[in-house]
Amino acid sequence: MTVHPLSTGTQPAGDEAPIVLSVEHLSLDFRLRTEILHAVRDVSFVLRRGETLCLVGESGSGKSVTARALLRILDRNGAITGGRILLGNQGEEIDVAALSDRDPKLLQIRGGRIGLIFQEPMSSLSPVHTIGSQIIEALRLHRRMDKKQARAETIELLRQVEIPNPDKMVDRYTFEFSGGMRQRAMIAMALAADPDILIADEPTTALDVTTQAEILDLIKRLQVSRGMAMLLITHDMGVVAEVADAVAVMRYGRIVEAGSAEDIFHDARHPYTVRLLNSTVKLEQNQRTAARAETSTQARQPVLSVRNLSKVYGASSAWFGGNSHALKAVDDVSLDLYPGENLGIVGESGSGKTTLGRLILRTVEPSAGTVTYHGAGAPMDVTALSKQGLKAFHRDVRLVFQDPFASLNPRMTVKEIIGDPLYVSGKMRGAAIEARVAELLTLVGLDPMAMERYPHAFSGGQRQRIGIARALALDPKIIIADEATAALDVSIRAQILDLLLDIQQKLGLSFIFISHDISVVRYFCDRVAVMRLGKLVEVGTAEQICTQPQHPYTQSLISAVPNPDPRNKRMLHRTRYVA
Amino acid sequence: MLNYVIKRLIYMIPTLFGMSLIAFMIIQLPPGDYLTSMLATMAESGQNVDPAQLEAMRRAYGFDDPIWLQYWKWISGIIFRGDFGYSFEWNRPVADLIWERMGSTLAISIAALLFVWAVSLPIGIYSAMRRHSVGDYAFTFLGFIGLAVPNFIMALALMYFSYKVLGQSVGGLFSPEYVEAPWSWGKFVDLLAHLWIPIIVIGTSGTAALIRILRANLTDELNKPYVVTAKAKGLPEYKAVLKYPVRIALNPFVSAIGWVLPELVSGVTITAIVLNLPTAGPLLLRALISQDMYLAGSFILLMGVLTLFGMLISDILLALLDPRIRFN
Q1: Does the residue B217 lie in any domain?
Q2: pTM (predicted TM-score)
Q3: Please, which of A156, A248, A306, B328 could form a disulfide with A258 given CB 3.0 to 4.6 Å?
Q4: Interface ipTM
Q5: CA gap A450, A429 in Å, rounded
Q6: Residue B96 lies in a domain
Q7: The CATH number of the domain where B243 resides is what?
Q8: Is B97 part of any domain?
Q9: Do B180 and B318 fall within a single domain?
Q10: Does the beta-carbon distance from A111 to B236 stay under 8 Å?
Q11: Domains plus CATH for chain A?
Q12: How close does chain B come to A253, measured CA to CA in Å?
């Protein structure tokens, strides 16, 4: 595949902003235990002053290591094996790739010329130093300020990134900040030395949609006011459409297609780019409305009814001291789930959606309210069940977890993992389990031969399939999926959702689908419940919630979802919800 | 923070009470008492004891009183008069005996602790940063040898070495001519000349353990995103490592202080006996063998109290070092 030069964009060549960094034929190798991994091969791109280049690709495509190579902060076993990284410097150019590891110029470039923001705002700042001290350090390194000046400048920077009360927050620790605030502090630090280039490596992946919109807004404004070039790394085509001037698509360490945002979104040539776009756009439509008649839900008996369910944390005070701050994680929630229905629960982190899922399963004891399950026999009051009864209930209502890497025991084979619920329930033994596991693996689209292997041999998507097979083992009636696709790449995400829909048709299941990702819920669910601060603010059909939300909070949530079309940037006219 | 310390101190009262009960029960558990074991010793050496005299002593010491009354006598003396009882074997107040030994015990233990930290901190950092290098393997090898060789063997070997090669008098903390002499420069130098053997013997196993702990902790921390952030900021590698991950990897060092205090009393008994050190360990052992109940009981109680205070100190230090603990 040839690499299209970036100048193929629509702009005439004369108007283009000056190049601040150009990467030419960069290749990176990692020495592994048994082999050499060519993580990046022959990658070329340029960053222009005031413009944003988005590097897009799925996990493992080499986009993050490319960004780190620009700063020369690769892991010890990685090395640049070819190519040049030319950093423009008032006429003279420095080849970053050719500098020695101990070159003082390198230390000046890091943070001074190129700033870096990471994905994980939780762990990318030191937990034992104050926010202020970490920013002051960057200022003193690059701008030769004394302590007092640096402190004043830090407060000014925090004000620029819109942190309220910056003179107080400067002395706070990172764990006293929310995720969005930490990312703001991280941005302030990256901008401290007034760099020419800002590298943002998945800066909003770990954040809620509304926070994501605000952070992207902020980065864009700062970029414009400072005239920085930006390299934004992301897997989310919606984000790309919102902010990119130019786009480069990476796969298996190579750039497969590059061009202006307009070209990539409306005139993609490489099949991989087309596939990536399709799986993103596909999630923009509801898959369910066509499949079912709407009238039926009202008449039928719900399979699960939740009435006035509440969970209060920290209400009881300890005998000595103890706190009296009660937190209402779930506050008076009433819901119905009908047979064969997919009910989505959306909300930002901390809205109580995960707790609600656990309350329904009663792995967390509710403080008040009832959950009634209408199974095969008489209606069951789940909140009053004995241990034995709860066991039977858990046979009918199963859970699929978020993290496909952490939810499978690495020391058990796939057969043991999927067969475990069968074994525990005492339903089957020996060869019967094996036959059932093979059947389940076929059902989730895996080869039955895979049952003797361990989870590490599978990719994230395949592992999630194993998790789903485990949930299906006991022929459940309801599956609660808590962020079941959040850890997956976008193309795999669509596959897993299709798989779940397919299984639902075959087995007649009901799903409670908990997610912070509006597009996934829109694709997958019949009805959607929106939660905020433990309360249910709105319930409606997926189409109605996504296109005509009634509650102002839902409106602000929907308007913050990035739209994968650069001609129609949704975030420019989003609404904010002030409670 | 002050609230936290006060709360912790109040919580300690019931724990201390329980500990004193257990200490007293432990010294009452072996069959017989000090007099029976004295009788046995005297009978072995062919002396006769007048049963009437024995009975008189038994009454005088209160061995015939009910257990709870004995306990009350013991604990009330400690609480109200600072009187830990009377050592039968030494014929002296227990408090005097213990304090006499505490000075040298403290000196040796603190010196050993400083040795452990001074050696293991730089080596641990080096090993973590240059993992699987020749230097790492060499230090790991030495560390495991230190961990594996029993202390008394090491003590004997070093004594032999210092006697044969350096021509020093071995054992104890001073040469014979200085033992009773008042403090002078010469005595101090003599102390240093003797002190290095116990410090190395006591310190090596701790050093090896701490190197491994620091290496493992730091290896985990070195890959955290905040280290990359520090490097991306433009900090030179050694500064980035010392300021951020090392600071967090220090927690086990501070936690270890909690165990150091009780170790002061009992930890190095065998080494102290081999090296003839005037520390508390041998005294405790002797007291336990001869059923010198008040001395042994006071030692056990003291160890418990030291453990509690050690934990308190390390918790406070940990809170000072790590704001996440301080604020939660």
Answers
A1: yes
A2: 0.77
A3: A248
A4: 0.74
A5: 20
A6: no
A7: 1.10.3720.10
A8: no
A9: no
A10: no
A11: 6-120+196-282 (3.40.50.300), 289-315+324-407+476-563 (3.40.50.300)
A12: 22
